[in-house]
Amino acid sequence: MATLYYDKDADLGLLEGKTIAMIGYGSQGHAHALNARDNGQCVIVGLHEGSSSRAKAAAEGLEVMSVAEAAAAADIIMVLIPDTLQAQVYEESIEPNLAPGNMLMFAHGFNIHFDQIKPPPEIDVTMIAPKAPGHRVREIFTEGAGTPGLLAVAQDATGNAKAMALAYGRAIGCTRAGVIETTFREETETDLFGEQVILCGGVTALIRAAFETLVKAGYQPEVAYFECLHELKLIVDLLYEGGLSYMWYSVSNTAEYGGYEIGDRIEGMVSEDLDGILQDIQSGKFAREWVQENREGLPRFTQRRQREHDLLIEQVGEELRDMMTFLASKKVRQASGN
To answer: Which residues does the annotation mark as catalytic?
Structure first.
């Protein structure tokens, strides 16, 4: 069974007199910074000179510095910029300003696990990874609740790394909901696998394929959109609230029987491929390819993003969502690197 920690297991007093530097002020960065600040912590924000987030952080009353200045001033440095930028920023601005006994933190283990960042031995290296997008981490915190998170320690130079990381987890609200102890390896590999085969890659691929199958067979694109994409939220909500059994309980017997029969067929088609995908993650193959793609300027990634944006299902969906007055419809006009 997993080990979970809650508020009672985390001592905020350990952060007294400490300065926490949030490197980055995007989705996770703003949530961590504001939650920790509202929980009584001394928070500064490190951003490069041209960052558009400087004004946002300053407007929230946070002290903004360069990344190098923030790293030098802080006892705890939480790195919350995109994975592909972390190694360069660390080498140029963070590593030269680390002091023995500092704690270097991450919300995702990619760069530590795949050796893109190699911290010196005299500092603690830990992770607190909220299991939600940043806007939800902030929103739930302001409602008095918290987002579950993951805790990992890669390097314990002080002998107090775990306790300090738990204190940080409490500062941003994660221990309100529960923090599971893991490792950088487990967090990184399971996170990548989940994103690729279910949350981002698998679900969208199945939606596209199902939509295109119906349209090719002569069904109206609008009807296919509702069946293959729109109604997915209803099922996801049931899964979120009660797991697989509650979802099966909530749908019709026809849907349940068909789901079992065809679900087994689909599982049989992909199970062997899933093993291969996991092996590519575990071996570092995916990480090497992604790092190389970034070094080359994201040519294949950018083209693929544009193709996705131009799909028929996207065009139909945008028109239908504009007609749904109950939706706060979101639109992405241009693809941009992230």
So the answer is: 108
